[in-house]
Amino acid sequence: MPITSSSQSFSSFVNGWLIRHRYFVEQLTCASSYEETNRIALEEQQQSLVTQFLSHCLQYYQEKSSAVSLAGDNVFTFFCPPWFSPYARLILWVGDFKPSLVFKLTDSSVGDLSRHQRDRISSLRSETRRKERDVMRDYALVQQSVADPPVMLAARRVGARGMVDGDESDLEEAMEVLKRGMARAMNKADELRCSTVGKVVEILTPSQAVKVLRTIGELHLRLRELVGLERDHE
Question: In whole numbers, what is the pLDDT of the chain averaged over residues?
Fold first, then answer.
């Protein structure tokens, strides 16, 4: 599938965004190993870094949302991005990471959660999985709309006798509905991704949040590095 101007523009944005992303991951790595000489000052410094990194990630999804809204005929490009390697695409969920992956990364990054924190994260995990099912249900309905009788009837007419008056408009209308539905599904999925990370961070202390965000940031870099390795072998 050819890359549209909106996806090309977004891909260019990502190249610059990744430079800043790598810098933030380095800062998070350093912050996770700071010695506690002044606890209050340390927490303030870590919280400031957490806030900056979250804003950095939010910028990515805001730019992506704008690109998706302008993608037109090729909104589908964002569901299987050509700027990701096949390895990265294996874990894509509605075009990006699955929100509940954040909980696995939290479990692997933080070993000193309190009982209260564990309870809150468990509750959030259940809520997130429910919302994931809601997104997937809506996503499936959009995909199924392609097989609705009016759409299939128009497609069969075109296949049987070629395009005639009325058929083209029917197909165009059906595709417009599909593209709008796909864009809504992507936006809902991205909103859930952002809100899940934000809610997990709210439960954690600044030092715990630094460790989790560092792990999330490193995962993103590893996926992008796979793209570079793959291109080197082409």
Answer: 84
Q: Which residues contact 189 (CB under 8 A, 6 or more apart)?
A: 93, 94, 95, 96, 99, 135, 139
Does pLDDT of 86 surpass 60?
yes
Please check the confidence at residue 126 and state whether its pLDDT lies above 80.
yes
Quote the distance between the C-alpha of residue 189 and its chain's center.
7
- Residue bearing tokens 């400031």: 48
Residue corresponding to tokens 């890359």: 3
**Helix pair 167-203, 206-232: axis angle to 10 deg:** 140
Strands (E), 142-206: none
- Reported pTM: 0.84
Tokens of 160: 């049987």
Q: How far apart are CA 234 and CA 229, in angstroms?
A: 9
How are the residues of the chain apportioned to helix, strand and coil, as percentages rounded to the nearest 5?
80, 0, 20
Q: Which residues contact 88 (CB under 8 A, 6 or more apart)?
A: 223, 224, 226, 227
- Tokens matching residue 145: 């709309």
Q: Are 31 and 210 in contact (CB under 8 A)?
A: yes
